[in-house]
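4.2 Preliminary Data

To establish feasibility before requesting continued support, the project team ran the inverse folding procedure on a target of 320 residues. The structure was first converted into the token representation described in Section 3, and no sequence information of any kind was made available to the design step. The complete token record follows.
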């Protein structure tokens, strides 16, 4: 039988501060899950809420964990807790092995959408938030009313690690955002168009290159830089547009259109979701197709719940 030895303070005088032998087969696995949550949250209140137990019960479990590991593990620091050097050294391996165990269990379980109460975290872009998130929510809720979807913004830093660890279930984004290390399946394509308010003084003809560049434009900037992909393509043609303002989300563009003579260049799906009366035109120059994908990590490939989620996203969005 595979056994793991963990020590307590009582052996400190016997073996370099490492003591009591503990048979992991007689230890509640829940204690290790508790420690994992505590090391992440570093706050007793938040950790207790995540675990669904009372603070006194959590404090009792922390006392037991301190006895097992022969270390304080977490110590008071301001309004929260700070990990000790010992806790820091076990935090990564502990979380990784627990995730592997959870993944192993999930791969052997059949996911039943009618009874499941699982939480899935989906990393998406601003584009998805404005266009396809409502469709995903509707499809998932109709098929699995107990499942909860949490949508989070994509951040390039640490994305692969978050998907690998299971903090993110799947990613829905354009191919330019999806890392090569992830598995992916194509959902649909989109293309940029120009949008103006109804009754715009320029009229209703599709713009030529000269007119397009002369118009006053609003754009979207996620990184604080005013110029983006459209400006790069114009530069390839030796041209430049008149950018007046940039907002941090597509959601801020409709009000600008309705209250001014500004025009915007956005993917067609985004334009079709704008509130108010707008007019949509093709661009006077070619831009690459935007290809959107659903992506996941190899470690989640056999997870029946993750596969169910991927399949329902694909059925909902593919080729639309």
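Position-by-position output of the design step:
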């Amino acid at each position: 039988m595979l056994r793991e030895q963990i020590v307590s303070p009582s052996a400190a005088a016997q073996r370099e501060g490492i003591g009591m032998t503990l048979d992991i087969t007689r230890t509640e696995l829940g204690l290790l899950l508790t420690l994992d949550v505590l090391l992440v949250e570093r706050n007793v209140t938040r950790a207790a809420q995540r675990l669904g137990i009372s603070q006194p019960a959590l404090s009792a479990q922390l006392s037991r964990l301190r006895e097992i590991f022969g270390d304080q593990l977490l110590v008071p620091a301001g309004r929260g807790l700070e990990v000790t050097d010992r806790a820091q050294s076990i935090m990564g391996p502990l979380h990784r092995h627990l995730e592997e165990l959870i993944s192993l269990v999930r791969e052997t379980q059949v996911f039943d959408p009618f009874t499941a109460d699982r939480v899935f975290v989906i990393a998406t872009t601003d584009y998805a938030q404005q266009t396809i998130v409502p469709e995903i929510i509707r499809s998932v809720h109709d098929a699995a009313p107990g499942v909860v979807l949490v949508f989070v913004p994509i951040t390039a830093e640490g994305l692969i690690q978050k998907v690998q660890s299971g903090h993110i279930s799947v990613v829905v984004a354009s191919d330019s955002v999806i890392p090569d290390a992830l598995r992916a399946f194509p959902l649909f394509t989109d293309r940029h168009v120009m949008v103006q308010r109804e009754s715009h003084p320029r009229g209703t003809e599709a713009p030529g290159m000269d007119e397009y560049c002369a118009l006053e434009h609003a754009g979207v900037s996620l990184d604080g830089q005013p110029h983006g992909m459209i400006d790069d393509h114009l530069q390839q043609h030796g041209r430049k547009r008149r950018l007046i303002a940039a907002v941090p989300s597509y959601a801020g563009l409709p009000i600008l259109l309705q209250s001014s003579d500004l025009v915007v260049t956005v993917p067609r799906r985004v334009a079709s979701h704008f509130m108010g009366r707008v007019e949509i035109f093709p661009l006077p120059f070619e831009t690459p197709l935007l290809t959107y994908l659903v992506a996941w990590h190899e470690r989640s490939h056999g997870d029946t719940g993750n596969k169910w989620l991927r399949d329902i996203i694909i059925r909902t969005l593919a080729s639309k």
